[in-house]
Amino acid sequence: NKKMAETADWMSNLNEKFTKIPLSQLTFLLGSHDAMAYSLDTNSSVLEPKKIKALDKMFSTFLRLIVKKWGTAQVKEKNISEQLDAGLRYFDLRVAGKPEQSDLFFYHGLYTTMTVKVITLINFHVILFTLIAFNKIAFSHFKEIGYQVILSYDNRSVDDPVLWPQIEYWWADNSDPKERRPEGLFVAGLNLTFDGNDMLLYLTKSLKEKTMTAYPLLLDWVKEQRPGSDKESVNIIAGDFVGVNSFAQDIIQLNNADNGS
């Protein structure tokens, strides 16, 4: 329908003046934390957290179900293509290989059932900019040269001419909000974080249940944010279980407000 189409192609509706300034100051980009964590495979071994990984061989059937509950960060009804249609433009992807296999998989606690090849099958929108986790480059530059995807690699020890360096990701208490925001693109993560102890303590709970309980407060915070280069401005906002509430619409509306629409 019309509303879905507008959400899917919201970047094409940006006021032209906003396409000529650095993306780090331009606007809010919507992000998906652990974007592929909707297809975790309980037949795979546990990769994390360490405490549960150490017990995997003895209690695999029981523990893998727990890890899946706490590792599933997106709903299966919102696969990667549907997340794009929902307006998401930043994707946090974790990739790992399996022993004695040539294919690469995504993971979050467990491996996913899908290989990395699934990304090559995505049909990107005509006017679209996507970050797969870039700095003083404007959106208009990418439109001119026809590029649609930026790959950022989160490994400070690797200097690759093809991959963009790490995009700072702020979440929980790993950063001091009183410090000046990073100069380039950075992510404000709304994702909640639980360790192995939490998973074993709350056996009947899940990441989704805890996240959805906290979301109203998080969305109130989102609505108060503004883009820009000043100390308190925000750039990319990422979250879990995107598409099940007003997360995407709220952020797109902030951009519309800046557009004067």
Automatic annotation (TrEMBL):
<dbReference type="InterPro" id="IPR051057">
    <property type="entry name" value="PI-PLC_domain"/>
</dbReference>
<keyword id="KW-0472">Membrane</keyword>
<feature type="transmembrane region" description="Helical">
    <location>
        <begin position="114"/>
        <end position="134"/>
    </location>
</feature>
<protein>
    <recommendedName>
        <fullName>Phosphatidylinositol-specific phospholipase C X domain-containing protein</fullName>
    </recommendedName>
</protein>
<dbReference type="GO" id="GO:0006629">
    <property type="term" value="P:lipid metabolic process"/>
</dbReference>
<dbReference type="InterPro" id="IPR017946">
    <property type="entry name" value="PLC-like_Pdiesterase_TIM-brl"/>
</dbReference>
<keyword id="KW-0812">Transmembrane</keyword>
<keyword id="KW-1133">Transmembrane helix</keyword>
<dbReference type="GO" id="GO:0008081">
    <property type="term" value="F:phosphoric diester hydrolase activity"/>
</dbReference>
